[in-house]
Amino acid sequence: MGEPLALEHLLVHGRPAGYPVAHREGQVLDFAALRARVAGWRAAFAAHGGTRHALFLEDTFEFAAALLGAWHAGVCIYLPADARPATLDALRAQVEGFAGRAPAGVTAIAPLPDADGAFRALAPELAALVVYTSGSSGEPTAIPKRLSQLSREVVTLGALFDAEAGDVPVLATVSHQHIYGLLFRVLWPLASGRPFDAHALPYPEDVVAALRPGPALLVASPAHLKRLPPSLDWASARGHLRGLFSSGGPLGPEALQACRDLLGRAPVEVYGSSETGGVAWRRRDTDDAASWRVMPGVQVRTGADPGPGADDVLAVRSPHLDLPEGAWFTTEDRARPVPGGFELLGRRDRLLKLEEKRVSLSAMERALVDSGLVREARVLPLADGHRVTLAVVAVPDAAGWRLQEAGGRRSLNQALREKLAPHFESSALPRRFRYLEAMPVNPQGKSTEAALAALFDPRRPSFRVMERAPDRVLLSLEAQEGSPYFEGHFPGTPILPGVVQVDWALLLGREHFALPPDFLRLETLKFQQVIPPGTHLTLELTWAAESGRLGFKLTSDAGAHASGRIVLGGGVG
């Protein structure tokens, strides 16, 4: 590990030309390569003009160079969480250009060759970044960040964790397009002189393979750590794990124990948000109930919000926040102060007025988990004609799955409604349910309300994961009788249209693999048998990243129904 450098002076003071900055597929990318690439990006931003540009690149080394190049050109970077067309289109009115991925019809900025490599120190007050909240409870909110905020937080991370982390490279399962990944995967390693891997590790198999060659830190999230298959050869990898970090929410008991058993250590859990930056941390090696320890320079208190039921709501004052002098930021979390920190008590109640009565969605979620039938539950309002009804997305535990297998989905629905009935008015009980192997999460590891609501779209097939691997997934799904796709195709003898079968393959493929955004063509498409309403199907999806081909096969007890390959392109970074 090199001498720590402030972000403002990183390219002024610099490091030796051969100093390793990143690893990419066995290749070492050194400081000379970073400096040259930053210069090229700086020249490109300057030539394009404007002070607000969006940046989406999957390669972390290229992302770091583009980000630094933008800052040295006086450009504020807007970080979209993903490169979906709708996400990029929404940024058109806010930015003056796009680097990396760009909307259709827009030419992306690219680095210029042979650019001048002299640099000046960056101004701490630079408007450096706009990040977005995860949108867990609605539309994502833009959060501006000054360079001084980011720089102070990087210094805090170094003071807390540099000594223990040592001189080892950084691996990550999380995206640098989110503030947690940006700080832990890019900015802290750059400032501390610790090399990082240019590619993320989306699957547990990738983590095992990446840890085998030698010591490393792993930056992960609860969404990844609660999906560690015990069947993998963790013994060959965990001896090289020198540090483990997790952020995005508290780690559940099962995931915590899996980390201890499979990875040989509990993670350093970091508490914070896009708005607050890092607030506190803890490491639960043996004590499952260990409290959160406040980071240096951060202050917390409870009971500052005058709203109803806000006596235990946590408020934060921090150098990582850009607020007026003395101002506090009120979070959505409840907490109990303890010496040196606090204990989290859960999220602030989400209240909804339904049938003229107030209903606590948070209390309903707690009651569902307390039923002993589900491990996780989210309750959300859905518009049903002219009225609003409640819907539940849940991850059943073993007892819940057994009940569904024995009596069907309706039996589990009814059992959960009966568990809720003593605590809520009958008019407020949920009417719609979806059961999943795991909650859908975005690149930040959060389950957004939009993603949960999409599960109730009648055009989307409900499914269960039967088998999963990095390049293959096997799903069980049903062509439900109520699907609108059967309407008019054909009267009296409805069958599922072939175009819908291909659409389902692509839709579910995008949920399980990191696919390129652009559809190019279909290959070897075959339809062997029609699919009538109520057919229980097995869908096998295979992803060949090197050729950009998503293969699919739809079968049932009646035999093969459809198969083919969907060719995709355009890149994801």
From TrEMBL:
Under the heading InterPro entries, the entry gives: AMP-bd_C_sf, AMP-dep_synth/lig_dom, ANL_N_sf, ApeI-like, HotDog_dom_sf
Can you give the residue ranges of the AMP-dependent synthetase/ligase domain? 121-289
Matching entries from PANTHER family are given as: ENZYME, PUTATIVE (JCVI)-RELATED, PTHR45398
State the name under which the record lists this protein.
Answer: AMP-binding protein
Q: Where is the ApeI dehydratase-like domain?
A: 469-565
